[in-house]
Input
Amino acid sequence: MSATFDTAVGIRRLPGQVGEVIDRCSPLTFTWNTRSYQAFKGDTIVSALLASNVTVFSRSFKYHRPRGVLTASFLDPGCTFQVGDEPNVRGAHRRVEPGMVIRAQNGWPSLRYDVKSVNQLVGRFLGPGFYYKTFMRPERLWPVYEQVLKRFASGGKVSVDSDRGYYDKRYAHPDVLVAGGGPAGIAAALSAAERGAEVLLVEEEYELGGHLRWGGQASRSALAELRAAVAGHPGIEVLTNSVVTGRYDDNWVAVMQRRDPELPGGGFGPAGSPVRERLVKARAGVLVVAPGLVERPYVFEGNDRPGVLLSTAARRLINLWAVKPGERAVVFTANADGDEAVSDLERVGVEVAEVVDARRGGDVVRATGGRNGALSAVVLGDGTKIDCDVLVTAVGWTAPTSLLNMAGDKPVYEPRAARFLPGGGLPDTVLVAGGIAGDGSLGELVAHARVVGATAAARAAGVADPAAASHSPALRLDEHPALFRGRTHGMVDFSEDVSSKDLVAAAREGYDSIELMKRYTTATMGPSQGKLETVNAVAVLSEVTGRTIEETGTTVWRPPYAPISLGALGGRILEPVRRSPMQPWHEAHGARSLVAGQWVRPDHYGDPESEVLTVRERVGIIDVTPLGKLDLRGPDVPDLLNLLYVNKWSKLAIGGVRYGVMCAEDGVVLDDGVTGRLGEEHYVMSTTSSGAATVWEWVEGWLQTEHPDWRVHVTPVSTAFASVNIAGPRSRDLLARVCSDVDLAGDAFPYMHVRSGTVADVPGCWMWRIGFTGELSYEVHVPASYGLHVWEALLIEGEDLGVCAFGVEAQRIMRLEKGHLIVGQDTDGLTKAFGAGLDWLVKLDKVDFAGKPELVWQEREEYPRLVGLQPEDPAIVPPESSLLVEGNRIVGRVTSSRHSPTLRRSICLGFLDSELAFAGTGVTVLLPDARRIRARVTQHLAHFDPEGVHLRG
Amino acid sequence: MIRIPCPFCGLRNCDEFVNKGESKRRPAVGAASREEWRAYLYDRVNPEGWVRERWYHRAGCRRYIKVERHTFTNEIRRSEPAGT
Ligand SMILES: [Zn+2]
Output
């Protein structure tokens, strides 16, 4: 052993215990607050530290009192650590690993700092409702409050450089999902599996067994049998270090599976799996809730001192990790588990100075502290003071009814058992087993759970319910003492630092319903989320109000049951990205990509302005594959088009193409595009790239719900075709070199027409003569698998014409030069058709079309209009969304702006109040840097070639 | 997460569907007053109880369906193709 260790094997480490989970042949070292410590494989962070006599792990949230171990389980409120760059690690659960770097969280100013001076420092924050009272006024101090709160809050630190990690998702469809792998959960799982059910058994700890793990010889042999049976049953899948975090409608159950380094692949399958956590989305036929019971702390003065711990904590420390909780103990017991703790302590050589039996009227009144605030003595009900460094309490149990709440049940308080029990409001598909259902010997609980498991299997399979026939043996309810608070006030919520005194004060201030009290004091709202403290809070409130616990009721439990990391919720990104068949070419030729909706597209190939000039002067080609394309067939297509578009479609000839705009029923512009008629009953509708899915759904909606009688068949063919737009004065020459079966002459194939033919030897292509860029252009749709071939053929054939590839940015510049709006860019969720400058298109004399009534009303009213704008200073390009103002009044905004290489000046589209929306009006543009510049409303939306000479060329 | 019985595909997770809201009758265009039209656009009963609504099986058969669902219990007692 190296001399740098504080201790060799830990001065509190006991000799070998029969049920211990540590591997004494595998020592390891780790760092705690810069010092090196030793542990054994199987130790938790806390058991390792305790073995080395480290007993204070954090300072409490509000009062900054020292905190030690309380539950020695996941729930332990004082044992939350920063491990490496991972904050909020549950140190009494997480196993220590070689080389782990562990730091105290919430140790400000420091773990060893004198508690009294800290108390003075935070004096102003004491008392219930302290957030509301302290941090409200004056408002100007909010930034200061934020700094103070940040230092007090118990969160750890997250570095932006942290490894993002790999978080996975999984879908599961078990017949039966058992939440809780104690004896009852195991028995239910076995019984269900024996009846043929596929079972998912979920256990929060690293091993199955629940309390049998830290019990005596009988418990251990019962557990060995149960574990062997589970291992031998192929129908049971066990997830350990996993927790059911929520139950949702129809038994949709969320399971958070955490990594266990001891399992192959961390528990995630193949060795070397990088998965840290996995969110299992399970649809369970039947959910069996078997979480066991949570031991309840006792409320009295000093109950949060390091050294005061629950009987389960003492027994876990001794039996699982061979850690001696202290040297001299007082045990306050009200049940058999407390008595077991006495024998465990005595067996391992802890001097039990006093057993205070609550069943015979014994009580503890006060825990007093010595050095470092840790326990030094206990004052009993009769005033006796006993020196000790350990106080074990065993006052009773809380049923974790969270999942029952989530399943729609309202648990009811049973005074005889001093705990909440299922309220009879569970659906047939949710069953309970184990301590949450009632009391019994191990044999009785297992027998009951077996019936529950059989019932679950039967219900999941939809067959007759055996339990209904045999009348499932209900568990009995033993008498448990109602011990919540003693004669003194103490801590109720250990994680939020809320004492019973605070709760009494809150109730006297009028916050005397449990839900109000919870929000006002934040009791039960901390990291342990009420699992330890809810019932004590309810008990204190009922004490003050004179109501019973049943009358007081409890708070509603909501998901998640256990903390979930954001990484696990984010998980694996399952969103597909679409690439056109030509995308590899773009990337190989220097394209800068952008993501538009689901598509990755070339933004430009280095110099978008020169791409524009090439198109304007010669010819360019752009990949427009993402355009939406719907193939429409049937005799009633014209009726459909008339209904969906604001303009008329009845007289479109075969080979003709029309531009159309769709509005939603509120008159707001939804999408635009061209539709062409390819045959007698065959049309192709194009949509914007981003609107493709919406429009398909919209079209289907009208056909399926309003007009199921119409004979129209819709096929989305967006990705069946690759699309290339050939634009520029030489585009006809270029297309002619690759297409010989279509007459491209201007009068044979005029503007706004469509033809089908062969392109670069690929038959079945569609050619559209349309022009978003304002130039003579042809949009060629070719079967997708030939997209790259046609693209490359055009570049080779057009080399001597000076052809270039151009990207989305050049296209956007050219469409802005031409004054063509982009839906969603130059329109928003309030832009109705007239406001978008589409007066020329809207045909209000049609009997009906989607959104017509709103447009009828809009036409008669004032509304902002889309206009072309040119800044007086041609060098200034006002950023998009710059405001148009008159004095201090906002009169509009810029929707699109670019430098136009064609016109060598800045150009814009924008919305302007109607009284100003006339050609020649001067407006003021307020730039983001607060400069005001002047701009002029142009004659047309088009800045370039408003007459369309180029288009029709 | 509830499951919805699609008349074409059977019982499926609701995240395959899009809720299109309460079924509304489209007023006769031309005859409708502004109030009637805007009630069609925006007014919803939103009861605690049975509601007739339209769902679209987007990640399934792409059919619009009519569903009667209880908004408190999420029970679904009827599911049929739209336009019937
Ligand atoms: Zn379907």
Remarks:
- Residues 34-42 of chain B form the longest helix (9 residues).
- Chain B touches chain A through 25 residues (CB under 8 Å).
- Residues B 6, 8-9, 57, 60-61, 63 surround zinc ion (CB under 6 Å).
